[in-house]
Structures are given as C-alpha cells and as structure tokens.
Amino acid sequence: MPKLVVALDFQTGAEALAMARNLAPLVAPGQPDLWMKVGLELFVAEGPQMVRELKAMGFKIFLDLKFLDIPNTVRGAVRSAVKSGADMLNIHACGGADMGRIAVAARDEAYLEYKDECGLTGKPLLFAVTVLTSMLDVDNPILRGRPAAEVVLELARLSQGAGLDGVVCSAQEAARIKEACGPQFLCLTPGIRVPDPSAPADDQRRVMTPEAAVAAGSDFLVVGRPVTRAAQDKGGPVAAARDILRRMATAAAQA
Ligand code: C5P
C-alpha cells in the first residue's frame, strides 16, 4: 500500500508540531501509515530535535535534506541523519555513483551503531533525488536540452547500481522507472495535486493526481501545501489528508 508523506514546510517547530498533532489521529491503529517530512526550512530552524519530537508522536519521518557534496562530507551527513532517528533520507543522484555508494555504506554502518539509541526497527530508506519536480526540460541547465524523463531514468539506473533503495521523481516518470528497475526499486513522488481547478500547482510543474501517481506505481506520495494550507472552510488539513488517503486507497485497490 502506498504511503502519504506530509511535508511540514514550516519555519518554526511550534507550527510543525501543531500541524502534526492535528494529523495524528490519522495514524491511529488500523489506519494507513502516515509519514511526516522534515525538510530544509524546518531542519535548519529546529535541528534533529524536530525529528525526535515527531517520532515520539508516532509518525515515521522522512528527513529531506538532499545531500550533495564530496563523498566524505556526505558520509558524515548521512551518519548524523541516521543518528537523528529518521526513517528515510536522501541525497542528490547527480552526485554520482561513488557518492551514492558511500552514502549507502554510511547509512548501513550508522544504523548498526545507533539503531538502539534511536529506536529504529529497520534500516532507514535511502533515496536519490533525480530531477526536481519544479523543473521542466527547458529551464534546467543540468539537462542541457535533454528530456527530463530520459535523464531521470539514467539517474535511477545509476542510483540502483549504487545500492540506493529508490529515487525521488515526478509521478509522471514512476511507471518507466518501475519498468526499468523493477518493482522493488521504490519511487517517492512530490508534485502531487488534487484534481481541483481552483487549487494552485504552486511552484510545481511536473504534477500528477494522487490516483494517477498510485496507478503509475508511486510508493510514497509527498504532499505539502495541498494539505498544510488546505482551506479551513473545506475542513482544513485533516479533511485534505483524509481525502488524499481515500483517493490513494481507491487507486491501490484498482491497481
Ligand atoms: O507543497 P508541495 O506539495 O509542493 O511540497 C512538496 C515537497 O516535496 C516540498 O517539501 C519539496 O521540498 C519536496 N520535493 C519536491 N521535489 C523534489 C524533492 C522534494 O517538491 N524533487
């Protein structure tokens, strides 16, 4: 069953924790897994304590810091991220196969070292970001005129070869990645938007609906503003998250 990951893109821990508390009833036993994403904005403001506090509320945590640096620095960053207790981490695939392999080794060694201290019950998943979902072919200097889908596939193969668990991509690319890399190689897809003509796509460009993302084979759907900024007169974040979970469950049952 695909999982919903709510992006807690807030500047303060107080706002993030209030949102998480709001959504906590959705992780009650028997309910689908609900993950929280701690990204750059929140992590830079609050640090690893945020991961610990959200975990204590019963959520699984995706620490979305998208590491890209020389291998030795990435190794240290991955070790620190594992130590925070995060259940999922990521690096940039364009850092290359060596950086990927070093990140995997760092994840493995740090897991063994810190699993008891952090209460981790399994190795944190390690993903590689392919091409950001806010980018189209035309405006990405890294693509140099090549179609995003082609580069995404190349980076997915490179990441699989380096031992990563999956990639961050647009849901528009998930089906081709699954075809090329197999069903065990995971796809985590931001850029999810509900089919509502009045809802903004914000800065996302390569977007898909929750239903289409699940049908395409996405394993984790990352949703930020459509949940966290959901209009109060339509039930606010809880109603929005429930609606997306319902759409995901319907699509998964049909897949
Ligand atoms: O608000 P929205 O649903 O657009 O949030 C998407 C989240 O996913 C943001 O936190 C963003 O940083 C993250 N993300 C993304 N594209 C990627 C990787 C992460 O949009 N390729």
Terminus-to-terminus distance? 10 Å
Helix content: 40-55%
Low-confidence stretches: none
Bound molecules: cytidine-5'-monophosphate
Assigned CATH architecture: Alpha-Beta Barrel
- Structural class of the secondary elements? alpha/beta
What is the radius of gyration computed over CA atoms, rounded to a whole number of angstroms?
17 Å
Task: Give the tally of β-strands.
Answer: 8
Q: Tell me the strand percentage band.
A: 15-25%
Oligomer: single chain
| Biggest beta-sheet profile | 8 strands, parallel, barrel
Overall shape: globular
The CATH topology assignment is TIM Barrel
Main CATH class: Alpha Beta
Mean pLDDT: 92
Q: Give the CATH superfamily.
A: Aldolase class I
How many distinct helices? 10
Order of SSEs: EHEHHEHEHEHEHEHEHH
Domain tally: 1
Q: How are strands sequenced across the largest beta sheet?
A: 1-2-3-4-5-6-7-8
Outline of this structure?
With 255 residues, the protein is an alpha/beta fold.
Summarize this structure as a short list of keywords or feature phrases.
binds cytidine-5'-monophosphate, globular, 10 helices, alpha/beta, eight-stranded parallel beta barrel, 46% helix, 8 strands, TIM Barrel, 255 residues
